[in-house]
């Protein structure tokens, strides 16, 4: 169960907006987080709190195939991203890095900045606690839930190998 406040952006939030390419000479999550979203929202780093939920429009995460974007969001404090749709590579990278992610196009237009959401990926429900509305989502298959719960694919594989 995920519960947090919404930070909302629009369509086509690309990976260069999430973490500008000029900072990709580092893979340090704290460094990437310190520059996350700065080209479109200079207040993001100051106002994001651990457990916040990012909401985006269509084609969230388009652009680069590097994993820096989901790493930066996660290190900045974002626990989950809800969008109308995701770029496929970003979707895969988010799961691989343990960032929760779900598509729910019908909810995006009604969710507002600052709303509080509760997301239950096991039951397949997004609740907007601020507006008292509820949206159905397709729950993740169990193996994807386990990858996210183990904080990413590498940890998932390590634990599988070690038995």
Largest sheet: 7 strands, mixed
Instruction: Kindly name the structural category.
Output: alpha/beta
Shape: globular
Task: Give me the count of strands.
Answer: 7
Quaternary organisation of the protein chains: single chain
> Considering the protein shown, what is the CATH homologous superfamily?
Aconitase, domain 4
Keywords: Amino-acid biosynthesis, Branched-chain amino acid biosynthesis, Leucine biosynthesis, Lyase
GO molecular function, one term: 3-isopropylmalate dehydratase activity
Subunit structure: Heterodimer of LeuC and LeuD.
InterPro entries: Aconitase/3IPM_dehydase_swvl (IPR015928), AconitaseA/IPMdHydase_ssu_swvl (IPR000573), IPMI_Swivel (IPR033940), LeuD (IPR050075), LeuD/DmdB_bac (IPR011824), LeuD_type2/HacB/DmdB (IPR011827)
């Amino acid at each position: 169960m995920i519960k947090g406040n919404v930070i909302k952006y629009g369509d086509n939030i690309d990976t260069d907006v999430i973490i500008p390419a000029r900072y990709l000479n580092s893979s340090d999550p704290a460094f990437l987080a310190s520059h996350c979203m700065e080209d479109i929202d200079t207040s993001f780093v100051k106002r994001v709190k651990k457990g916040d939920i990012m909401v985006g429009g269509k084609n969230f995460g388009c652009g680069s195939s590097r994993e820096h974007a989901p790493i930066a969001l996660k290190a900045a404090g974002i626990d989950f991203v809800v969008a109308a749709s995701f770029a496929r590579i970003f979707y895969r990278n988010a799961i691989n890095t343990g960032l929760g992610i779900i598509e729910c196009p019908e909810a995006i237009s009604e969710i507002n900045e600052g709303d509080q959401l509760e997301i239950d990926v096991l039951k397949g429900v997004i609740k907007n606690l601020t507006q008292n509305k509820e949206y159905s989502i397709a729950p993740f298959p169990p193996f994807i839930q386990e990858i996210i719960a183990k904080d990413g694919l590498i940890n998932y594989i390590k634990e599988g190998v070690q038995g």
